[in-house]
């Protein structure tokens, strides 16, 4: 019976935007894990302190799940956060579209993916592309921003408010974190 139950469940990766960054929306990962378990999710685990939660649920409606998580998070911490829910397939698809060859160029650059609340329009993308230069390289595909910068700029690069420039909420994860989340959310065989 349990095997049938597990097959019906979907594995999700929840990316919580802006928690535990700069002292904002601070929550221990053990408390975050407990919160997800209180919501009735199973197989809950967290990865690093920046709000990455892997869990299983029978619920297929991602918008409903995200709203439920956001509401629960606010009731516990009093902070509003945006939750991005992704499946393993969605993460792999986003990773496969990365134009910056992060595996090949890992020693010379840092690469990030920012999942956005919607696909930016042409004007917003044009505004972003106007910010390109030696320091930053950008690519947008659907609702994912890919950006990379040379390691020599790691400590002193411009801060760009990507959300403002693109007109969409978003949450970024490094290439290494994305790869780890893909492995952690892979269905068990």
Task: Please provide a written account of the structure.
- By secondary structure, the chain is of the alpha+beta class.
- It has two domains: 2-87, Alpha-Beta Plaits, CATH 3.30.70.1280; 95-184, Alpha-Beta Plaits, CATH 3.30.70.
- The protein has helices spanning 2-8, 29-38, 62-77, 88-96, 122-129, 162-166, 175-184; strands at 10-16, 42-47, 52-57, 83-86, 109-116, 136-141, 144-150, 170-174.
- The protein has a four-stranded antiparallel sheet. It has a four-stranded antiparallel sheet with strand order 6-7-5-8.
Would you kindly provide a brief summary of this structure?
With 189 residues, the protein is α+β, with helices and mostly antiparallel strands. It has helices at 2-8, 29-38, 62-77, 88-96, 122-129, 162-166, 175-184; strands spanning 10-16, 42-47, 52-57, 83-86, 109-116, 136-141, 144-150, 170-174. It folds into two domains: 2-87, 2-Layer Sandwich (Alpha-Beta Plaits); 95-184, Alpha-Beta Plaits (2-Layer Sandwich).
